[in-house]
Design goal:
The chain has ten helices and no strands. By secondary structure, it is mainly α.
Length: about 190
């Protein structure tokens, strides 16, 4: 493990950040069947019937592409401080926040929550590693990183509250994101209601 950590810490930050959208894409691929998990464990917020595999897969592809596009935009100016300040919020808030959701759902429902393996083994180590690398490289101050991680508290609270309702609910922010993605995915597929 040490050679891998040493390799990672030796990378130029602007190159290292490309690991974040890579592992995020692998994570989204592991969620290829998450709609079955959600429909088994959560009350239908009104969109479950609109999600079949093609809609889900396009939606997951769109989410993965957001990470790729954001990283490209923040790495493009060739300024590692700029990249650290703007890339990390996306991956801490969205990706690492999603890691915490998957861990909670796995423990709460005592079953495999699609995405938990890549979340724990890939996404979390890369996002935390990038944060440490940015702080050690003096690309961001420690307090900036602390704020990013503290901003996850409302997401975690929302996830816990929603799952503990009777019946369990998807967190509102996730429901809203899914509802915004469904029309775009259906439109890409040529499905016009």
């Amino acid at each position: 493990m040490k050679p891998l950590v040493d390799w990672f810490m030796g990378l130029d930050f602007r190159k290292a950040i490309w690991l974040a959208p890579l592992v995020w894409t692998l994570h989204e691929a592991e969620e290829w069947n998450i709609n079955n998990f959600e429909s088994r464990h959560f009350a239908d917020p009104g969109h479950f019937s609109l999600i079949d595999h093609p809609v889900l897969w396009i939606g997951l592809g769109l989410v993965a592409s957001y990470g790729i596009i954001w990283t490209a935009l923040t790495a493009w100016p060739r300024n590692p401080k700029f990249a650290a300040f703007l890339t990390l919020p996306f991956f801490v808030y969205l990706s690492f926040g999603n890691v915490l959701q998957h861990i909670y759902w796995t423990l709460f429902f005592r079953t495999y929550a699609p995405g938990v393996v890549t979340a724990v083994l890939l996404v979390a180590p890369v996002v935390i590693g990038l944060t440490v690398k940015a702080i050690r490289g003096k690309l961001i101050p420690w307090w900036y990183a602390a704020i990013l991680y503290l901003l996850l508290i409302p997401t975690v609270v929302s996830t816990v509250r929603a799952a503990n309702q009777t019946p369990p609910q998807l967190p509102p922010q996730l429901t809203n994101a899914i509802k915004r993605t469904i029309p775009l995915a259906r439109s890409i597929l040529g499905r016009h209601d």
